[in-house]
Structure formats: structure tokens, C-alpha cells
Amino acid sequence: MAEPEIQIYQDRESLSEAAAELFVELAGQAAGKFTVALSGGSTPKELYRLLASDKFKNEIDWTKLFFLIGDERDAPPDSPDSNYRMASETLFGPLNISNQQILRWETEHNDPQIITREFERCLERFAAKDQPSAAAGGTDPLPRIDLILLGLGSDAHTASLFPHTDALHETERTAAANRVEKLDTWRFTLTFPVINNAANVVFLAAGADKAEAVQTVIEGNRNTDEFPAQSVYPKNGRLIWLLDDAAARLLTKSRS
Prior knowledge:
Elements: E1 5-9, H1 12-29, E2 34-38, H2 42-51, E3 65-69, E4 71-73, H3 83-95, E5 102-103, H4 112-126, E6 147-150, E7 175-180, E8 185-190, H5 192-195, E9 200-205, H6 211-219, E10 238-244, H7 245-248
Parallel strand pairs: 1-10, 2-3, 2-6, 3-5, 6-9, 9-10
Antiparallel strand pairs: 4-8, 7-8
């Protein structure tokens, strides 16, 4: 496993600009289909708006990109709380992304297990790469997503993998319905086996309220039940942290 790449920018705006440039670079390297797992949150939202702006929208062949919502709230797709709705308003709609290029959590089923099973079933096909199958004498591989965007909560959760929740210990399934008692709700999320099988994982974190979590995850003692984002470590891919000065202010070893 490669060491994480840590990039620090002056402010949220320059961080978003760097994230957009990295997105364009990675998408441009793809010979064919390029799969992206999107995150919710304010910093990714700025990135999506920037990608859909005149500055970047013509830098990518959007027809070869396929998007999935990396995690979701237990809310209808038209709810203001929906990560899908946010991505639709800031990215999919402005760029006229086809529904066939989008995998979302079908929360309208109103059953956590059905929502998760349907997402898993579609994910297997959506993000599959040309790898040996069980029928060919191999083993069914985990989905290999080209780029996973992640945020970081002040409690060091990422995606919808919250401290001391059952999904932290999932080792086989690709998606999970995760009951978060402190929020009294269900969340839906990709699991760590899928996240750590990605080609590129990029954390986006901005603001002073994220500084303690950033320092703990990157430099602190390992306790993945308490600090779930410490479990993100791609086994055969890049791990990149894009931070603004405020979020990086407590880092020591990682600052130059």
C-alpha cells in the first residue's frame, strides 16, 4: 500500500480548483469507461459546480463517465437531504448526464434491506471490469471503482461509516444499510472492502472544524471503531488528501 498523498491549499476555493483539475486528469487517463463514486457535503458540492462550469465542462468526455452515489440518507430522491438530489442539481442536470450513467440508492423502496440489495445488484454490473469470473475458474472480484470521492466528518466518519456502527466490520458485502443510533436513522453506504479496492480515493476536507479529525485520522493512534476513516487505505491504488489550510492546521509530520 502506498503512503497517502497530502496536498494543502490556501482556502476552500483553491482546494476545489485543484480537485477539479485532478478529476479532469484522472478521467482523461481512462481508455474507456470511468466510474466515479460521489460524496455528499459542502466541499464536494463546490467541486461538482466547478466541474459543470464553463471552465471545466468541455475538458471531459462525459459520455464515458458513470456515477454512483457513494452513500445516502434515508430520504426520498427529491428530498433536500438527498445526496442524489444535490449531485443532480449541481452536476447531472447542468451536464445532461443520462440516467443510464447514474447509480443511486432507491430509497423510495422504504425498506433498508431491499434498498441495499438492489444497489449491490446494480453495482456488480455498473462498476465491473474485465477480470476473471467465477465461471472462468477465478473468483468474483470486488467492483473496481476508478475514483471514490470522500468527505470527513468532525467525528472522523466517512461516507456513512460512523463510529461504532455495524457496517464498519463488513468484510464481504459491497454495500450496507447502516443504522446510526446517534442520528436515529438508517444510512446507506459503500463498504470498506469496495472503497479499498478503488484505483483512486480522494478525501476532500475544508474548514477548521475538520482539523482535529484530519490530524487524528492521518497521524493519530489507530482506532478504527472510534475513527472510521482510518480504515481507508487502498490496497492497490492511490489515497489522496486534498485539504485547505484550516483543515490541515494541526498536522505536523505531513506538513512541509
